[in-house]
Amino acid sequence: MESVKNIFKKNIRQYAMLIALVVIMAYFQVATNGILLVPMNVTNLILQNGYVFILAIGMTLTILTGGNIDLSVGSLCALIGAIVGTLSITMKVNIVLTIIIALVLGVAIGIWQGFWIAYIRIPAFIVTLAGMLLFRGLTITMLKGLTLAPFPESFQKISSGFVPDIFNGFGTKLNFTAIFVGILISFIYIYIQLKKRIKSRKSGFEISNLTLFLTKIIGIVFLINLFFYWLSRYKGIPIGLIIIGILIMVYSVFTTKTVPGRYLYAMGGNEKAAKLSGINTNKVLFLSYVNMAVLSAVAGVMFSSRINSASPQAGLNFELDAIAACFIGGASAYGGVGTVVGAIIGALVMGVLNNGMSILGIGSDWQMSIKGLVLLIAVAFDVISKKKSKA
Asked: What are the transmembrane regions (predicted)?
């Protein structure tokens, strides 16, 4: 049986950030007199930071390849917003077709940037910096410096719509569809964990003791159901949360359970060794940037829907939020280490800090300073822990 100490050591970054998130939430809950975790504010917290969650997922994959980042994601979000606005507002193009065009454009831009980075081997920093300037310029040119608004109502529902309650609340003010989904997810989670434990035992791998295993299961199931109960007290499950949830699930499975996903870690750990073992590292790097551009397009669509406009100033500092979320969530600045779930935890830390400080009336200058300090501490923790493990 694996001890609690060993488990904590193996997952120190994730557990440390999870504990930090809980502490930060508890502090702001007290400091804001309970406003932070009001059901309506919890929903707003998710929707306001939806673009960070999506960009952090894509940024995690690029960082895994060797500490590479993408500086162009904010400008690309703005460009996608401008294209979607021009098509749907000015040209009255069907919303579904508009979104498809936006995603295809994301693929094309990803191919463009990925080619220079992966096959010509121009540093990713330079290529994406050029992309940041190029896409911002194209956005301003397309919008002629003006803001386009409003979007059609069907487009707005991407970020402002909610899943209807099929149970009609059973005569209460609660959304029982949200409660049912929470229970369903809990059963799925329990099944996956039990199956994983049984498989590990049969294979002869070390497993955690039963008490710790059950404590973890009960704790996570409690948090899942508490979260969905909180959603049920407002309007239920936001459509934006469904999109984010699907992305988290798909990319978590991709990075942990598939061969191409493990290639990312192998390349980030040692690219030369990965090449010698038969991995096409150029292709891995290329596809990670194509993927990043597609997720940037998704984030651009969601953000435009959220603010209900296409603005030349949209997407400012989005890349910094995404990068910070990844590093705070446990990704290594050297590559090869990091998880999708960790990036989401990092994004939540950033989101709670933003939301909590805004409620308290703290100025944007201090907010930026505090977030910068949190990022520095997170990366310093990564570097120090690496040195200790080597020693």
From this structure: 15-39, 45-64, 71-89, 95-115, 122-143, 174-192, 213-231, 237-254, 284-303
Dist CA 179 CA 196 (whole Å): 26
pLDDT tens-digit series, residues 253-276: 999 999 999 999 999 989 999 999
Which of these, 381, 317, 327, 310, lies nearest to 354 by C-alpha position? 317
What distances in angstroms separate CA 327 from CA 11, 54, 118, 346, one per listed residue? 15, 15, 23, 7
DSSP code string of 144-210: TT--B-PPPHHHHHHHH-B---TTGGGGSSS-HHHHHHHHHHHHHHHHHHHHHHHHHHHTT---B-H
Is the predicted pLDDT of residue 331 greater than 60, yes or no? yes
Asked if the bond preceding 150 is cis, omega within 30° of 0, the reply is yes
> Which residues are within 8 A (CB) of 363 and not within 5 positions of it... i.e. 6 or more apart?
none
313 to 77, 79, 135, 318, 377: CA distances (angstroms): 10, 10, 12, 11, 30
Residue 263 has which token pair? 């290639």
Which tokens sit at 344? 């989401």
Alpha-carbon distance of 54 to 34, in angstroms, equals: 28
Query: Would you state the structure tokens that stand for residue 65, as one six-digit string?
Result: 């390849």
Q: Which residues pair with 380 in a beta bridge?
A: none
Q: How far apart are CA 69 and CA 51, in angstroms?
A: 17
Give the mean model confidence (pLDDT) for residues 84-91.
93
Task: Read off the pLDDT of residues 12-64 as tens digits, 9 standing for 90 and up.
Answer: 555 677 888 888 899 999 999 989 989 999 999 999 999 999 999 999 999 99
Can you tell me the distance from the alpha carbon of 195 to that of 175, in angstroms, rounded to the nearest whole number? 31
Nearest-angstrom CA–CA distance, 375 and 371: 6
Residue with tokens 């904590």: 8
Question: Which residue has tokens 């499950």?
Answer: 237
Query: What b-and-e string marks burial along 208-222, b requiring 16 or more CB atoms within 10 Å of the CB?
Result: beeeebeeebeeebe
pLDDT of residue 19: 81
| Amino acid at position 58, single letter | G
- Unique residue bearing structure tokens 């829907």: 305
From CA 251, how far away is CA 326, in angstroms rounded? 14
Phi-psi region of 7 (alpha: psi -120 to 50; beta: other; left: phi over 0): alpha
Q: Dig out the tokens for 202 from the structure.
A: 């049969």
Q: What is the pLDDT of residues 281-296, one digit of tens each?
A: 999 999 999 999 999 9
